[in-house]
Design goal:
The structure is a single chain. By secondary structure, the protein is an alpha/beta fold.
Length: about 450
């Protein structure tokens, strides 16, 4: 049995009820064969075994009091996966679907994503099964304060710097940081990123993931002789990431024609532009989580209970919502529709492995999420740099750095795919490029 196969089998045996985590482990490790199958250095040093095992994983009780005075209890998590190249860095997700498998999958992916940015940040992730939807500001504040009362023990500017994710925006980060500062008794701005501008946040952070995804796509387009101007995009979601994608695609002359939510998707053939983009912020802040609101306001098609994949004629599909939203049957529809030959993954692992295999077998190019959506964590790391320097950079300076990072990521994964004999396979290229930096650091630091 090969080294990769042995580690996958051992990981499956140790984590039998963690499907999302095992999905990403299989995908990443299988793509690393061109490196680890031909050099026993990695096996002798136990690199893969150490990569798939978090350095630390904590699960804790989060008790809080609702507006009726009733005590509620949720589960909190922080998984610190790998610190070989820097302090742990990764978001906090508040959503009912959160469990240890999802947090470990996100933390494992974050290790490689953060490596690709070229910045000195390791991989981590955290969150809770708490659902902010429908909660009052007071309830969210009390939950965040209780969550941080345990989390503070494991984080800090040089240890672990969490950021936001699904369900954790500027409001939640503010409450979390306020409690951290209160407990620590010092102003450690670098302990959290995604902060408000009045207390150490960075300009350009809210749009960074969406803008970065478009900058990455633009660089890919240049490599194949295309441009965003005149290109039609179908995307999913309508939150912060989708808002950034819509804004930047519109600025570059492209057109986004779909949005989606848990209730279905809308199709707007005129494109999501101008005040329609601004309305996405209003939709998200309403906490209704319904894309039908857009259809009602702008009188466009609404398709309840469906996703746009393979149902609309678009040049590019860009899933921006959540993990595993494109299944095998969606891939079959995409192929049957026949128009789209490029899938740009913006959300984390939005495509099941069955769907990935089917699309790639039929010559659909997939740009992987760990490369495409790295702009968010990149600007979070830039926020850490500004905090450490006690400076605030201009929006133009942050955006210039973001463009540079995303364009470098594309060329690094393109070069890695070419070097290791899988040209055009950007999934493998991203894993190989991300792994090389992390594994080199692990080897240099000995067994730790």
């Amino acid at each position: 049995m090969s080294y990769v196969d042995r580690v996958i089998a051992e990981t499956e045996a140790k984590n039998p009820n963690q499907p999302e985590f095992l999905q990403t482990v299989r995908e990443v490790l299988n793509s690393l064969r061109p490196i680890v199958d031909f050099d026993d250095t990695y096996e002798r040093a136990g690199i893969l075994e150490r990569l798939v095992e978090p350095e630390k994983a904590v699960m804790f009780r989060v008790p809080w009091v609702d507006d009726e005075g009733k005590v509620r209890v949720n589960r909190g998590y922080r998984v610190q996966f790998n610190s070989a190249i820097g302090p742990y860095k990764g978001g906090l997700r508040f959503h009912p679907s959160v469990n240890i498998s999802i947090i470990k999958f996100l933390g494992f992916e974050q290790t490689f994503k953060n490596s690709l940015t070229g910045l000195p940040i390791g991989g981590g992730k955290g969150g809770s099964d708490f659902d902010p939807k429908g909660k009052s500001d007071g309830e969210i504040m009390r939950f965040c304060q209780s969550f941080m009362t345990e989390l503070y023990r494991y984080i800090g500017p040089d240890t672990d710097c969490p950021a936001g994710d699904i369900g954790v925006g500027a409001r939640e980060i503010g409450y979390l940081y306020g409690q951290y500062k209160r407990i620590r008794g010092s102003y450690e701005a670098g302990a959290l990123s995604g902060k408000g501008l009045s207390y150490g946040g960075s300009l350009g952070r809210s749009e960074a993931t969406g803008f970065g995804a478009v900058y990455f796509t633009d660089e890919f387009f240049k490599s194949i002789g295309k441009e965003i101007k005149g290109t039609t995009f179908a995307i999913s979601g309508f939150g912060n990431v989708s808002w950034g994608v819509c804004r930047k695609i519109h600025e570059l002359g492209g057109k986004v024609v779909t949005l989606s939510g848990p209730d279905g998707y809308i199709y707007d053939p005129d494109g999501i532009t101008g005040d329609k983009i601004d309305y996405l912020v209003e939709m998200r802040s309403s906490n209704r989580d319904m894309v039908k609101d857009y259809a009602d306001k702008y009188n466009v098609e609404y398709h309840p209970g469906e996703k746009p994949w393979g149902r609309v004629n678009a040049d590019i599909y860009m899933p921006c919502a959540t993990q595993n939203e494109i299944h095998k049957e969606d891939a079959e529809r995409i192929l049957a529709e026949g128009h789209c030959k490029i899938l740009v993954e913006v959300s984390n692992m939005p495509t099941t492995q069955e769907a990935v295999d089917l699309l790639m077998e039929n010559n659909v190019t997939i740009l992987p999420s760990k490369a495409v959506n790295a702009g968010g964590v990149a600007v979070s790391a830039l926020e850490m740099s500004q905090n450490a320097e006690h400076l605030s950079w201009s929006a133009e300076e942050v955006d210039k750095q973001l463009q540079r990072i995303m364009r470098n990521i594309f060329h690094n994964i393109d070069d890695a795919a070419e070097f290791y004999g899988c040209p055009g396979n950007y999934i493998s290229g991203a894993n190989l490029a991300g792994f090389q930096k992390v594994s080199d650091a692990m080897l240099a630091q000995g067994v730790c």
